[in-house]
Amino acid sequence: MAEIVAYVVVPVLYLALLAVFLLFVPLLAGLRALAFVMQLLRGHLEQLTGVLYRRIPDFRTLPPYRPQDEEVKAYRNYFFGPGARDLRQLCTLERRSYAAAVGDAFRDVTVRQFTSPARSRALTVPYGLTLYAGLGLGAALAVLPLGALLALHALVLALLMAGARLVAGLLRALDRAALWTRRLSAGMICPRCYERVRHPAYDCPAPACRRRHADIRPGTYGLLRRRCECGQRMPTLLILMSAQARLQAYCTHPHCGRAMNADAGHMPETVLPLIGGRAAGKTQLMAAMLLTLENAAGSGGPALRFADAGSEGDYRILREVLRSGGNTRGTQKDLPSAHSFVLGTGRTERLIHLFDTAGERFVDRDETDALRYARAAHTFVFVLDPMAVEAFWDRLEHAPGPGPDRSLASTVHPEEVFARSVQAVAAMRAPVRRSRLAVAISKADLLAGSGLGPGSAAGSDEARAWLQEALGLHSLVRAMELDFREVRFFCTAAVADEEARVDTSITGLVDWCLGS
To answer: pLDDT per residue over 353-375, tens digit each?
Structure first.
């Protein structure tokens, strides 16, 4: 009987139960496949969270973009490198996670159902084979949603990266448009090396940092804000810098690198060079022009403020010398820094650079090529000392009363200064023929004592006629009018009284030079 049970009844019963089990195999395998797909999708979510949010070493397969490794010491915008890096990391981690999950699942079934089952292998082997089938099916089916999720991630990232570059381009165009409206499309003027700087460098505003950032425009290191290595954020557009939070700009030319005006780029710029021979009166005339503007601001005219401490300090000294009736110190032969000031307020603000260069540079052919600032000028002031013309002294011999001291005269004839200056400026491709020229006949106060001058109240036509008829400068006047689009003549007395009132002859010169 035992043999019948063992060899007949039990096998028949086992086969019957196995047949019944086989009916449920598709369901069991399908459920296991679905569970495995959900397990793999949950793993993908964990990988995604780890890569994009947690960012711990367990989810790092590629080195991060560090500011200290960048040419510019700043954090990259996510869509300019880090986003693609995270996608590569996610793909790598997903591949590893998928292989590990599939391998672990099959090994677990093998151990539990085949090599070390808790029950008889007659029961566990069919179930194990069913689990094998479910795992294989789940592993195959999971490839589609995982691939779709990765493809969707890549598509969204590509769209955002393209959008970020489009936004950066639009913001750069907006920045260029703002510069164009300020007539700075060719760049800003460095008051030290006289070169045009399209995109200055800026120091980090954090007091303890001072890292220098070149080209802060929207792009790789930020769209609206750039984050320095120290963590400080800084605007990427000039229009985002308020008047109280303007960054210090620096020239980007290799031979310079010095500080520019803080107002550079925020308003139109005007370059006004003063040309003249040694001791012609350029420095004193410049001081009188600035004092005239200061007095006008105090009387309700356009506001005046100096753009840097150096310009303000130099002017204070010149003003006191002018008020005391002394002679200003001759300009040093070293390349001058601009005397920069801001005229006006709000939308009418202009950054004006006055350049006073040593007279020796206008007669030495090896020195005039350093006067690069003239390329940015559209109005020039030629300071003409009539005492440098021999005809003046010839006429003085027949004039009544004592004449001026000849030691106060310029040592270079105006024609020589003008010819070489115009030649040098034209060689630098300055728009001479489209520019205006103000001829400031200096030392009108000294001429009045000799009775030879036309007087500081003389108009342009009178001053022009006096130069031609009294001093015989027909060829010089003609050359001026041929070389420049417009020429205006002024008789100027660069003097002031103790109350800082400047001779009225300077007002007309200033108004014409700074007019449109």
So the answer is: 988 875 455 555 555 555 677 88
Nearest Cα to Cα of residue 67 among 200, 234, 205, 231: 231
Provide the token pair at 365: 């052919």
Q: Closest Cα partner for 440 from 510, 358, 388, 373?
A: 510
Task: Name the DSSP class of 12.
Answer: H
- 225 beta partners: 235
Read off the pLDDT of residues 237-284 as tens digits, 9 standing for 90 and up.
Answer: 888 887 667 888 899 988 888 888 888 888 899 989 898 888 888 888
Residue 330 confidence (pLDDT) above 50: no
Q: Cα(204)–Cα(87) distance, rounded to whole angstroms?
A: 31
CB atoms within 10 A of CB 311: 20
Tell me if 445 sits within 8 A of 456, measured CB to CB.
Answer: yes
Instruction: Note whether 503 and 448 are within 8 A (CB).
Output: no
Res 388: pLDDT? 87
d(CA 226, CA 201): 13
Helix, strand, or coil here: 188?
A: strand
Instruction: For helices 282-298 and 505-514, give the axis angle rounded to 10 degrees.
Output: 90
Separation of CA 69 from chain center: 22
* HEC-encoded secondary structure of 193-259: CCCEECCCEEECCCCCCCCEEECCCCECCECCEEEECCCCEEECCHHHCCCCCCCCEECCCCCCCCE
Q: Is the dihedral of CA 153, 159, 165, 167 positive or negative?
A: negative
Give CA separation, 477 vs 138, 172, 275, 364, 473, in Å.
96, 47, 15, 22, 6
Q: What is the rounded distance in angstroms from the CA atom of residue 198 to the CA atom of residue 186?
A: 7
* Whole-angstrom distance, CA of residue 328 vs CA of residue 320: 10
Q: What are the tokens at 299?
A: 């009387």
Q: What is the largest CA-CA distance in the chain?
A: 163
CA distance 375 to 256: 18
Pair 368, 426: CB distance under 8 Å: no
pLDDT beyond 50 at 333: no
Q: Which tens digit of pLDDT belongs to each residue from 369-418?
A: 556 778 888 999 999 998 888 887 776 665 555 556 666 778 788 998 89
| DSSP run (H or E) holding 270 | strand 269-275
Question: Distance between CA atoms of 146 and 42, rounded to whole angstroms?
Answer: 10
**pLDDT reported for residue 367:** 53
* Dihedral angle of Cα 168, 173, 174, 179, to the nearest 10 degrees: 130
